[in-house]
Amino acid sequence: GNSVTQMEGPVTLSEEAFLTINCTYTATGYPSLFWYVQYPGEGLQLLLKATKADDKGSNKGFEATYRKETTSFHLEKGSVQVSDSAVYFCALAVNTGFQKLVFGTGTRLLVSP
Amino acid sequence: NAGVTQTPKFQVLKTGQSMTLQCAQDMNHNSMYWYRQDPGMGLRLIYYSASEGTTDKGEVPNGYNVSRLNKREFSLRLESAAPSQTSVYFCASSERGSFPDEQYFGPGTRLTVT
């Protein structure tokens, strides 16, 4: 079946530190991969996506590269800000028929000044 | 545009009570979804509606019913609430439901069943 595994949190960093949140997946077929972000008290927002192997998604200084050989889609940011504190969800969708998302468990990021 | 709206924001029910969670979107999207979010489990799909007039079960449909009232509105009903249904419920919508597609989420309803 399809599943997503994320690193457990919380991840605690100081402002301007480098961020990596690991995500690996298992899927039948060739999935699209997504990172969603949930700020406190809000719904999820799409942060970035990649639809095929070796694609790099990027947005707001965050990047993730679709690695088919390691079945991974790790999220990175070179210099985090306090405003990046949120929960980050990795997700996949298999590209056949109706597109349903499969989510990881989420990783909470806490950034201190 | 308001995007995806949900009511209520918070609700406390006693075991056995019923209630309906409301969801509406103003983006003219064809597909709508209901998820629940539980600690340590991410989001799980309860029901979805690929298009107006259709609904289908997701991963965890037991104890729930849905109605796609029109293209804008998709409601989730708990007929007899149980403590295991304590969760945060999110509604989402997407333009067509087929690849590639982005889902837009509402702010959520926090439900507690005592």
Describe the overall structure.
- The complex is a heterodimer of chains A (113) and B (114).
- With 113 residues, chain A is an all-beta fold.
- Helices cover 0% and strands 52% of the residues of chain A.
- In chain A, strands 2, 5, 6, 10, 11 and 12 form a 6-stranded mixed beta sheet that branches.
- The radius of gyration of chain A is 14 Å and the shape is globular.
- Chain B has no helices and 11 strands.
- In chain B, strands 2, 4, 5, 6, 9, 10 and 11 form a 7-stranded mixed beta sheet that branches. A 4-stranded antiparallel beta sheet of chain B has the order 1-3-8-7, with no helix packed on it.
- The relative contact order of chain B is 0.34.
- Chains A and B meet through strand 6 of A and strand 5 and strand 9 of B.
Helix percentage range of chain A: under 10%
- Globular, elongated, flat, extended or rod-shaped: what is the shape of chain B? globular
Largest sheet of chain A: 6 strands, mixed
Total strand segments of chain A: 12
Number of helices of chain A: 0
- The outline of chain A comes out as globular
Mean pLDDT of chain B: 93
Major interchain interface with per-chain residue totals: A-B, 23 and 25 residues
